[in-house]
Amino acid sequence: MPAWLREIEDSWGWLAPEADEYDDLVTIRLARLGRSFTERVAELTERQRAELLGLLDRVLAGDDPVGRDAVATGFLEAVLSAWDGGFDLRPVWPHVGPHAREYCLAWNDFTGVPSPDWMR
Questions:
Q1: Cα separations (Å) of 51 from 11, 20, 56, 58, 100?
Q2: Which pLDDT tens digit goes with each residue over 101-118?
Q3: How many structural domains comprise the chain?
Q4: pLDDT for 22
Q5: Nearest 5 degrees, angle CA 56-CA 58-CA 64?
Q6: I want to staple 99 with a disulfide (CB 3.0 to 4.6 A). Which of 35, 61, 87, 111 is the partner?
Q7: What's the domain range around 113?
């Protein structure tokens, strides 16, 4: 298990729903974490939001291709999907790191979702 994933599980395991037998793939784990993050973000302090999103941005910028894909297609796409469904992303956006922001904007462009000015 990569160190970044161990850190997520050690520090943020309480946020994610309980694992099931299909939860072995890291992308699925981060997708579940992303969904839970959007459902429980009010329980997080500003510092916790910044720490989690900062860690994920570092993974996205790192040299682990599995980690980069898991953060992008797991966590970030789950958050963006929740935003499309009504999750208020704006209060969280200041904590989203530059690599994650770049991915989110590119994903919006790819899927045809207009990015509001506050995302740019």
A1: 10, 26, 9, 11, 14
A2: 999 999 999 999 999 999
A3: 1
A4: 44
A5: 95
A6: 61
A7: 3-119
